[in-house]
Amino acid sequence: MKPFITIKEIAHLLETHEVSVSDVAQFFYKRCEKYNPELNALLEFWKPELELDELNKDGFLYGIPALIKDNTLQKGRLATAGSNMLKDYIAPYNSTIVNRVISEGGFSIGRANMDEFAMGSSGEFSAFGLTPNPWNHKHSPGGSSSGSAAAVAAGLVPWATGTETGGSIRQPASFCNLVGLLPTYGLFSRYGLIAFGSSLDRPGPLTRTVYDNALVASALSGHDPKDSTSLPEPKRDYTKKLNGKMPEDITIGVLKDALESDAVHPEIQLRFKEAIHDLEKLGVKINYISMPAFKYGISIYFILSRAEAASNLARFDGSLYGSRFTDAESLQEMYTETRERNMGAEIKRRILMGNYVLGSSQKDAYYDKAQQVRNVLLAEFLETFQEVDAIITPSTSTLPFELGKECNDTLSMYMNDYFTLPNCVTGMPGLSVPCGLSKSGLPIGLQFIGPRLSEELLYQIAYAYESNTPHHLNRPKKYDE
Ligand code: GLN
Q: Coil, strand or helix: which one is 460?
């Protein structure tokens, strides 16, 4: 097997009996042993404990190893969410995501590093050390799904789960030349995910190709009665319509702002224009559109995600889960010292901000206002989707951050999520695919946004784009052996 083998290719080798499932497991285990010490992408990895010959041979993921982001429960394993607060926390049950991987014939081989409680854009906020970008170790692989993205990009695993609250799948996908799906809110179950912002959180796959992504999405799809926000959707095979041809009569909207804004890196603008041209060559009609409320995505997210984080993280006080400060003389001291000692600075900033915007004297001005603007943005999206089938934007406004820089400039880090937040706060899906490299050899991503439950169409469009362009074939050379 070759280093950057795709899920589709592994499935073929298994089908023709050229390799066995234990060969596959062994291959990736060895790559993790060789490269993880320099990447710190996996907090832990193991040889699969399942009886490999008992796996479901008819499943979408038969014989395919998976890496699971460490805010997603794997029974009997640590689930730290990248935080000292949960450094000794053992998951008492499997998340639905993990159960689906197993019922579809796959298996987990590790836990992926991540920004603490999924708050961050660079992976530098993990309590367990940063993960460099396999394309260039001076740069960040993105965040918060930093370990997941770096591991897939370096070929340590064929795919990994990520989670998004606002950009954490698509931005690392873009920084690492991967395909990342933010699914429609409620499409994949969140049962067994450590919560950050409950009206926003969703898990999704990070892969090297669109086909692989659609395959994993098929495995994860289907209603889950254990999650009250899970949509009543049937299980679906998202690969069925993937033939590499652009569907007929597709109109795609391009935000004029994205082409004109100084905030978007010039090389990203260039690749974005080339992508528009490539799509036109494939028969897509491009409509230049304007969405005046798009720019509010970032402010809506900023307020709501902090408010929801403050509520969700209130449970980590030493009394129920995870770490506890045991030398306290009062209950109050136990709570405060537990939080003070075990939460990182970014988490504390967000809890403070969240409680502020929820305070009775500010709620009208911030939290309630953000909910109102969220509805305005939603209405604008729905109107736009009357005219176009999908919208494209660059996935990020900057190239992969230099490590050590943006994490000290919080505002510029927050601004990087400009293109990923509007569809996140309105529950719409987004798919990031590679669209080229910068002159310095850093990956650049293109995002397809569609209306709710348009995943099947987004995959078709993106697969046609991928099948007619070479960008997904670019690999970080260092890991090519
Ligand atoms: N960059 C986003 C943030 O820091 C990422 C959040 C996420 O999607 N988990 O809030």
A: helix
